Structures are given as C-alpha cells and as structure tokens.
Amino acid sequence: MKRVTYAGSDFLTGDDIATALLECSEALAEAGEAETVSVPTREADGSVGLVMVLIGPASQIVARQVKVDAEELVDPEAVERLRAIQRRHRPVAAIVEANAEERTDWDSEV
Questions:
Q1: pTM for this structure?
Q2: Strand 9-13's sheet: what is its strand order?
Q3: For a designed S-S bond to 17, which of 6, 9, 13, 23 qualifies (C-beta 3.0 to 4.6 A apart)?
Q4: Which residues of 72-102 are buried (b: 16+ CB within 10 A; e: fewer)?
Q5: Cα–Cα distance between 56 and 46 in angstroms, integer?
Q6: 72-76 contacts at long range (C-beta below 8 A, 24 or more positions apart)
C-alpha cells in the first residue's frame, strides 16, 4: 500500500494505482496540461473511498510504501483510466513487419 502526499493532504491507495497516478502526472507535466482525476483510496475504517486530484505541470506528489493492516487496494479500472490519460499525452507507435521472414536484404547499389 502507498501513502500519497499531495497539496498538504495524504491518502492511502494501492501500489499499482499510485504508480499509475505518478506516471500520469509526469505525462501531463511534460505536455504542459492539467487534468482532474479520481483515485480510489483505502479509508481508516478499511472501506474504499475516492479522492479527486488535480494533476499537471505544477504537481508535487510523493508516494511512499507503508505497512497497514488493510488489504491492498486493487482497482484495474482506475489504473486503466490513469494509463489512458498517460497514453493520450505520450502516444507510441508500434511498427509490425508483415512477412518478416520473407524479407530480403536491401541493396543500396541497385
């Protein structure tokens, strides 16, 4: 579990969620943009809550590992939402070669 500190407040969230939040924040900062995101939290009573966080170029977020008695917070949908924002600001193209086995060497002399 990670304790995330942001803007003088802190909250507990799952490891994967905290990592996705930091990576999303970094991508937004590089793009010079900001966005409000929702992050699932583990509350003191063990229940799951939600915090809204404005992240962007001026975000200063710290996440550190903590030991708690509560179960690790796992939310694949939240992680995917954060990663989708990151992908929008860091597009990646994949090149797949069709018939790579049939490719012949290129001759620059031809």
A1: 0.80
A2: 48-55, 35-42, 9-13, 2-6, 61-65
A3: 13
A4: ebebeebbebbbebbeebeeeeeeeeeeeee
A5: 29
A6: 72/1, 72/14, 72/15, 73/1, 73/12, 73/13, 73/14, 73/17, 73/40, 73/41, 73/42, 73/48, 74/14, 74/16, 75/14, 75/17, 75/40
